[in-house]
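Q: What residues go here?
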């Protein structure tokens, strides 16, 4: 028998560390541990970017567990945040945003706009490396088919990435 679980986890940007810790200890960690210990379970999960960033900074073991579950095919992250999470695990990536862009064949494709860490330079080789990284960590068909490097991502005063501004910039390049 196979079980499929669905979960939605959303703490708003600016939540306190106490709120993140409460969510982690009471819900997220027990859920992920249960799925990990039961190979017949599959988890469909939404994780917000702010939560991912908090856990990356304060609980890297949670991000490693999420990666393991994705690799084992026991977890699929729903939303654009899926690619954000996987791409952010690459050592060259400081931050990224995922948007969709028109494609004449597919209708729309996934585009990653990536800010690199110090010491990394944009190149076609690095672009392919990042795409292949996502393929290895997820599945061969799940990767951003378009990838653009930028110095910074547009953000609101609260620090939330403004994907609408990225999409408007993409429309100008069409």
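A:
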């Amino acid at each position: 028998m196979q079980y499929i679980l669905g979960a939605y986890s959303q703490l708003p940007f600016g939540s306190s560390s106490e709120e993140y810790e409460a969510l982690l200890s009471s819900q997220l960690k027990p859920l992920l541990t249960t799925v990990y210990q039961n190979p017949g379970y599959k988890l469909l999960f939404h994780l917000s970017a702010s939560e991912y960033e908090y856990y990356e900074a304060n609980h890297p073991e949670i991000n490693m567990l999420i990666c393991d579950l994705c690799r084992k095919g026991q977890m699929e992250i729903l939303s654009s945040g899926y690619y954000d999470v996987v791409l952010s695990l690459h050592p060259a990536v400081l931050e990224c945003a995922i948007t969709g862009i028109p494609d004449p064949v597919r209708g729309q494709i996934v585009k990653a706009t990536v800010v690199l860490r110090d010491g990394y330079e944009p190149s076609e080789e690095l672009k392919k490396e990042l795409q292949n990284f996502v393929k290895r960590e997820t599945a061969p068909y799940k990767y951003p088919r378009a990838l653009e490097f930028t110095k910074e991502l547009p953000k609101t005063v609260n620090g939330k990435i403004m994907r609408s501004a990225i999409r408007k910039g993409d429309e100008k390049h069409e």
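A: Context that may help when evaluating the design: Strands lie at 3-9, 41-47, 75-77, 93-103, 107-116, 146-149. DSSP finds six helices and six strands in the chain.
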